[in-house]
Amino acid sequence: MMKNLDKYLSLLDDQVNGLLLTSRYSRHYGAEFDIAEGVAVVSKKGCRYFTDSRYIEAAQNGIKGFDVIMVDREHPYTKLINEAIADFGITALGYEEHYLTVEEMETYESKLNVKGFVAMHAQISGFRAVKEDWELALMEKAQAITDKAFSEVCTRIKAGMTEKELQAELIYCLYKNGGEGLSFDPIVVSGPNTSLPHGVATDRVIREGDFVTMDFGVLYKGYCSDMTRTVAVGYVTEEMEKVYNTVLQAQLAGIAVTRAGVKGKDVDAAARKVITDAGYGQYFGHGYGHSLGLEVHEAPNCNPSGETEMPVGVVSSAEPGIYLPGKFGVRIEDVVVFTADGCRNITASPKKLIIV
């Protein structure tokens, strides 16, 4: 099995003979160990990982394949990076333009002793599209934590509590069951607020007859989970049930055509057709799915512009929705792994309409 660092080394040649890894995600991927702050330099003659006193002990104990060096006031990042540039004979650095601010880039350009910089975000991040088996195992654990939290929080949803109160309960359940962080700020909305795909929890009191949508995920060893469920409180109307079942059938249609070799836009189209045929096409605005891993939104994606033929090992969300402004909305989201002959759904929570 090729180590992640070896994948980065494979990008280097006579034109670009060094990489400057500034994002937490690429540093984590290359070192296979997560440190909140730092910078790494990768070359075929050597690799160095720089961080400060807050993280140096953890880095020295956990990072393999890099020489770990501490930065301080007398030895700032740029000085230490220049030492690596000189020691390894680096003349051109590939960098992650997607994550750098203009100020940071201007600092590197003015202080680092290289002839040129080459924007290489697409190449550096591209390896993360296909997950190794050990990465899938971590993502499955993250999903299992999320499933358990959902099961528990369903017992806590009651008319009379506010969206913010429910959000607090959900976050507690996520951490209690093994989450090591949140992969994003949870979305907890109720009643007419469920028509907001990325609504924010408010002081609105949850009532009988409401839909409640919860979109949430955790970090486990740095890898993300993601899921959405829409549940009802007390009862549903005929229209609510129709919309819910339409979204569910759309998701199942998307999952049915999910397999390696299929373009992302074709997976999206299969789900979108169900919603359009039911008369709700104008109320499904976002894409069917996005890849996830170290970040909750990665590439390639299953949306109308997704031209990529999905390779084996892509992990993607499956999350169609219908959002009726001022009334209610429904979204159902699982996470699936693309395989040669289909896909494997790693989300175990039930999708039949739950009424609490």
Question: How would you characterize the overall build of this protein?
Answer:
The protein is an alpha+beta fold. Helix content is 33%, strand content 22%. Helix 7 (133-154) packs across helix 8 and helix 9 packs antiparallel against helix 10.
Per-chain topology:
Layout: H1 4-9, E1 18-21, H2 24-31, E2 39-43, E3 46-51, H3 56-62, E4 67-70, H4 77-88, E5 92-95, H5 102-111, E6 116-119, H6 121-126, H7 133-154, H8 163-176, E7 187-190, E8 211-216, E9 219-220, E10 223-224, E11 227-232, H9 238-256, H10 264-277, E12 289-291, E13 298-302, E14 315-318, E15 321-324, E16 328-331, E17 334-339, E18 342-345
Parallel strand pairs: 1-5, 3-4, 5-6
Antiparallel strand pairs: 1-2, 2-3, 7-8, 8-11, 9-10, 12-13, 14-17, 15-16, 17-18
Helix pairs in contact: 7-8, 9-10
Short description:
The protein is built from 10 helices and 18 strands. The chain is of the alpha+beta class and 356 residues long. Strand 12 and strand 13 form a beta hairpin.
Keywords:
Creatine Amidinohydrolase, six-stranded mixed β-sheet, 2 domains, single chain, 18 strands, alpha+beta, Creatine Amidinohydrolase, Chain A, domain 1, three-stranded antiparallel β-sheet, 356 residues
Count of domain modules: 2
CATH superfamily of the largest domain, called what? Creatinase/methionine aminopeptidase superfamily
The strands making up the biggest β-sheet line up spatially as: 4-3-2-1-5-6
Shape field = elongated
Largest sheet: 6 strands, mixed
What proportion of the residues form beta strands (DSSP E)? 15-25%
CATH class of the largest domain: Alpha Beta
Proportion of residues in helical segments: 25-40%
Order of secondary-structure elements: HEHEEHEHEHEHHHEEEEEHHEEEEEEE
Tell me which CATH architecture of the largest domain applies here. Alpha-Beta Complex
